[in-house]
Amino acid sequence: MALRSRALTVAAVAAFVGVALSGCSLLSPRQEPIPDLTVADVLYLTELRHADVELKTPAASVDYTRAGRDTCASLEKSKSVPAAAKSLVNSFYPDEASVIIVAAIHNYCPQHVGLLALPGRS
Questions:
Q1: Can you list the alpha helix ranges (DSSP code H) found in the chain?
Q2: Within 10 A of 69 (CB to CB), how many other CB atoms are there?
Q3: Which residues touch 1 (CB under 8 Å, ≥6 apart)?
Q4: How confident is the model at residue 57 (pLDDT cuts 50, 70, 90)?
Q5: Is 34:42 a contact under the CB 8 Å cutoff?
Q6: 8 Å CB contact between 86 and 49
Q7: Which among 57, 33, 55 has a CA at the least distance from the CA of 44?
Q8: Radius of gyration of the chain, Cα coordinates, nearest whole angstrom
Q9: 120 Cβ neighbours under 8 A, 6+ residues apart
Q10: Cα separations (Å) of 80 from 7, 77, 98, 113?
Q11: Most buried in the list 1, 74, 79, 117, measured by CB within 10 Å?
Q12: Span 76-119, pLDDT tens digits
């Protein structure tokens, strides 16, 4: 039952994000194609929004999605959150970079969730 509830929630969020993104594209002077979003993308962008990261245009959503996926690629190579953060500091504020890293791990590469634990705490 919980799985069905989660699936319905994901579907509702996906529909909402699609409408929100299409509404943003209507406001821009040139029409941009709306990116195809996966379930992981929708959950990732939702987590960013809940952390007060503003996604005003479809292009911003694409940029943040790319940053999240790149973060996971960096974690695959370095296995270090500080190393992954270095690639974000030129494009994002430090608080946004932190949110991107956490949301990326939660939604794109959950196998690295152990990297979010504080040393000496369980």
A1: 2-27, 39-50, 58-78, 81-86, 94-107
A2: 17
A3: none
A4: confident
A5: no
A6: no
A7: 55
A8: 15
A9: none
A10: 32, 8, 13, 11
A11: 74
A12: 998 889 988 988 988 999 999 999 999 999 999 999 999 988 77
Is the pLDDT score of 7 beyond 60? no
Q: Rounded to the nearest 5°, which phi and psi values hold at 86?
A: -60, -35
Structure tokens, 99: 């949110």
Output the pLDDT for position 2: 52
* pLDDT of the residue at 75: 94
Q: Write down the residue that tokens 């500091």 correspond to.
A: 89
Measured from the Cβ of residue 58, the count of other Cβ atoms closer than 10 Å reads: 21
In the structure encoding, which two tokens stand for residue 92, read together?
A: 């994002």
Give the containing element (helix H, strand E) for 52.
none
Residue 73 CA to residue 56 CA, distance in Å, equals 26
